[in-house]
Amino acid sequence: MTGDIDAAKPNYGPVLILLAGCFWGSMGIFVRRLGLYGFNSVQIVSIRLTLAAIVFCIMLLMKDPSGFRIALRDILLFLGLGVGSVLFFAVCYFTAITMMPLSTAAILLYTSPIWIMLMSVLFFHEKLNRKKLLALLLAFAGCVMVSGISGEGMTWTGFLIGLGSGIGYGLYSILGTVALRRYWPYTVTAYTFLFAACGSLLICRPADMISKFAAAGNMTMLIFLCVLTALVTAVVPFLAYTLGLRTVEASRAGILATIEPMVATVIGIAVFSEPLTVLSGLGIILILSAVILLNWKA
């Protein structure tokens, strides 16, 4: 099952990629709420990945149980998607946040479109044209402006870990494109999150995490929040992004997904009453310009 799309149908791929970016942009709301219960960043990652893996497996079971069949040789591919991409980028990003200002960590994360474009040229022989390069420049400049320019507290170790988050983030587009040539999108997401969840459970101190659940005053509300976090920040966006990759080049998808920090900034203003600076406003305009440029038909 490869999920090929009829050429006569409209291409909704870019819309799905943008939708994924919008949902990822809401992550700050849920991370802050779960943090109030005492969970550290790695434990929040583990909760998110584990519940998402359960949901994706249920979805695949309901749609087509035969989708669980994969070739033995492709286990390394899904290991790369789950552990090498999804888990690796999340751990690197949250580690970077503890080592440097959030704005600097965010900028290093959003070097991902650069890595995607380079890997796409290397592995998929995608052609670089002026429109892609200009969109990449606009998107990255917009991310820098939205995140804020700060180099305080930067160390070489933090810098490399921050770059690792961008590379891991970008690797999903590359490995996901390969996996979609062989498997259904629901198979890809189910196995990706199964491997990611198993990896996260090895590093999240499960006993400590269970004790925090037991100490919660309102267990029902906490479980509801955890499920909602998994659905909004993992299940919906990763499924949408994976479906979008069927018809959108990896390099283009990476640039479109940079709408995430713009959405995060808007949510920060609307939900947390964070101020909108002139620099952030210009960054939002640049990111939107990159999105419009990539979808502009001559």
Primary descriptors:
single chain; 0% strand; 298 residues; mainly alpha
SSE map:
Blueprint: H1 13-24, H2 27-35, H3 41-63, H4 75-99, H5 102-109, H6 112-124, H7 130-147, H8 156-180, H9 185-201, H10 206-215, H11 219-244, H12 250-256, H13 259-272, H14 278-294
Helix pairs in contact: 1-11, 1-13, 2-11, 3-4, 3-9, 3-11, 4-5, 4-8, 4-9, 5-7, 5-8, 6-8, 6-12, 7-12, 7-13, 7-14, 8-12, 9-11
What does this entry look like structurally?
By secondary structure, the chain is mostly helical. It has one domain. The protein is built from 14 helices and no strands. It is globular. It starts with 12 loop residues before the first helix and ends with a helix.
How would you state the average pLDDT, rounded?
88
**Which class best fits the helix and strand makeup?**
mainly alpha
Percent helix, as a range, is over 70%
Tally of helical runs: 14
Strand content: under 5%
- CA-based gyration radius: 19 Å
Number of strands: 0
Dominant shape: globular
User: What is the number of domains?
Assistant: 1
The SSE order reads HHHHHHHHHHHHHH
* Amino-to-carboxy terminus distance: 34 Å
Unreliable parts: 1-8
Largest sheet, in brief, is: none
